[in-house]
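User: structure tokens for NAD(P)/FAD-dependent oxidoreductase, please.
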Amino acid sequence: MKNLVIVGGGYGGMRILHRLLPNQLPENIQLTLIDKNPYHCLKTEYYALAAGTISDQHIRVSFPEHPRLHIKYGEVSAIHLDKKEVIVNAEAFPYDELIIGLGCEDKYHDVPGADEYTSSIQTIDLARNTYKMLNNLNAGATVAIVGAGLSGVELASELRESRKDLKIKLYDRSKHILSSFPERLSNFVEKWFVDHGVEIINHANITKVEQNLIYNHDQPFECDAIVWTAGIQPNKVVRELPIEKDSQGRVVLTPQHFIPNYEDAFVVGDCASLPHAPSAQLAEAQAEQIVQVLLKKWHGEPLPDSFPPFKLKGVLGSLGKKQGFGLVNDHPLIGRVPRLLKSGLLWVYKYHNG
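Assistant: Done. Predicted tokens:
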């Protein structure tokens, strides 16, 4: 029996499992899922876990159950493409076909001290630690959030609603936060922060981080906590693979989403070089195409030469529990509606996925 190993139970891995199970998995194929957590985590909601407005239970989804799905819990330390094996807890797991969905880590842009003296929301473990740190702060403490993209904005707004006593500073290197969004949308979010007492530091350039000190343009500023949301990079295991990467360190793939010269090894999600910024939506769309490739391989059919471009519906972000923003089909949305949309989509994903 052939063994399809899925490394990482994130959005891409989960979509593949739900498409293959229970009815599309051939009788001669078994699945092995490798993940360090005993559940799928809703990474898009880690900001709320860190801010203390939701609990673990809200962002956990059980993995599917099936007689030919075997789950191994552990952390992947290496992948040997030539040997066709994955190393987990110093043990080698062979595979016939492999899907790598290990996700991403913080990217510190070579800023001294950033990895040592800042907190993170990149994994559920790190988000839990950030929650403990933020919610143990004394009244009036200062929190610096580095990076005003989607994660930084959502964390800052959620933390403001959770801890109205804190002084929150949001550092952004651009002229406006959410610079990749339309100006009307950026202005709405900036006004929300001004109205709610969150200080935005534009044109920031963080040059160094020390214990309770953040250096902006080499000028030190005291703070009680620092959270880093200023960029991501592929998981270290993927970065160490001796294969072609793009300028962001993501794996260059064939149109069928496997690694060139390794047609049995696919990469899904944040580690894949794709024509869009990494997102849960993109990982799921790519996973759908990978399933098509796998089914054709298993049935001895020719693989598709190419796929249609990904059709992503847009982006939705939160400003606390009552306001939000988003781009849906290139139309900017602000206010209550995008927040309701995001809540509804999250509910559908959690309770009706698969």
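User: Anything notable?

Assistant: The mean pLDDT is 96.
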